[in-house]
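Possible regression after last week's pipeline update?

I re-ran a chain I had predicted before the update to compare outputs. Posting the input and the new output here so someone can diff against the archived version. Not blocking, just want to make sure nothing changed silently.
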Amino acid sequence: MKKYIFMLLASIMCLSSCIGDLDTMPLDDNQLVGQQVYSTKDGYLGVLAKCYGSLILTGQKGGDGGDGDLEGANEGYSGYVRLLFYLQELTTDDFLMPSSSNGLRKCLNLQWTSSNASVITWTYQRLYMSIAYCNEFLRECTPEKMKGYGVWDQMSGDYLAYRAEARFIRAYCYSMLCDLFGGVPYIDETVGVKDIPVQMTRKATFEYAESELKAIVGESASDDLLKEPGQNEYARVDKVAAWFLLSRMYLNAKVWTGTDRYTDCLTYAKKVIDSNAYPLASDYRHIFLADNNTCREIIWPLAQDGLRAQSSAGTNFYVKAFVNGPMNELYQTGIGSKGWGNVRAKMTLVDAFDPADVAFRTDDTWGNTKNDKRAQFMTALDNQKKETWDNNQAMTSTFTCGYGYIKWRNVTKDDKECASGITYTSIDFPLFRTGDAYLMAAEAILRSGGNRADALKYVNEIRERAYMSGKYAKAGVSSAVSGDITDSELTLDFILAERQREMASELVRRTDLIRFGKFTKGYNWDWKNGERLGSDVDDFYALFPIPESEMTNNPALEQNEGYK
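New output (post-update):
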């Protein structure tokens, strides 16, 4: 099944000369482009693949080979997952990178402006580029256009589902713009290339994404409907993905719109869980391996392949940045000596786990003897210490300062090198997975005053899987501790800590800390505000600025508070 999505992604390269760089605006109608691209069903699928691929690839050649998607951007940095790591993880209590290039130090220290962090600008541009691809597809994927191109007979049975997928990707992008930037310009398939987009409020941005998602799952008038749970091709979305995204949006609605929607969050999280289309993996560690396309828990993977989807972004970044060469002598990283070793865990992430589970044992490289199998750290390098500073109390690029985080491995479940080799990884990135839905449901119950017994059940299901106890027990793996907690231990603070243990590096931590009121003030970590032990920052840092280049291009845009 994984092979299918890469057949689609391969067709992207053939379309590049026809579609070109869309920047952040829709294409003009162009008959020549239409004749070249949309004369076959495969052409339509290729453009739909471009919508998906815009969140996976970085350019038209692969392997950072030039002709990048974003003009003027460092191609290796410009991939979506890598960019989100900088904004959603580096800014938090999870990870540190000592680099100062492209605004990374500004993100680490929470000291960015509208012009001093390129990675913020590139994130904004990539999301709008994805929206532009979706708009292009939706303009051309209509009965009238397809009849004109002579493909109606081929497309009539499928085009509504294809349209729904494009609308989902666009809604997802707007949800992320809402989260990261607040109120943003509205551009859909009806906006002309010469039109000046009108800026929506943050609430209106939320409501637009919400309305699109409800339409494509059949809850409002729409012919465009996503496929039923589990019925689409691998790495393409179905109704469960829309339910998941609605749940995540409703969990954050109080922050994004001023109105809590926790009951709605629970409704859609339960839909995800109860569908059983994407059941929890039997082993947490299997979610992050090179053969995780066989892991049924992943609702929406961003598919990666070491041969057919090469870049320095995606999970290639995750493994290489988290691992350095000497680590490969201690366990099977799947990348040999190719690691960069420039990301380390902050002390707050390490301290979220029991100290007894943190240590790496060279005779137990998978951590089978640990209680919590999620405590995947590298502590066995020479002279390695937990602190992220040297003996002079300064930040350093030496990997001995701070522990490595080794949850991502470019190997298969049986600890074998993947067929695509070690130059690029083949780990699909689990953008949406069911484990998150369990924790969203539990949090929504606590915040809405719902049935605490249900919340406890959801949390303990996640913890039993992490500890591989109960129904998750298997031979050769310790299950001495169940991981279960009691009702008296179940608090919102516990949920936040559990989310860190379960979801570290999965691009939600900044959003979580903001929702819990702990991002800017009242809770600190290594190097926040540029200080070794961290200090409070102004509340306006809970939103990123609209990039200065966008403000110049559209003077009607209103900048976020604090950046004016």
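Follow-up from reviewer: compared with the archived run. The chain has a mean pLDDT of 93. Marking as no regression found.
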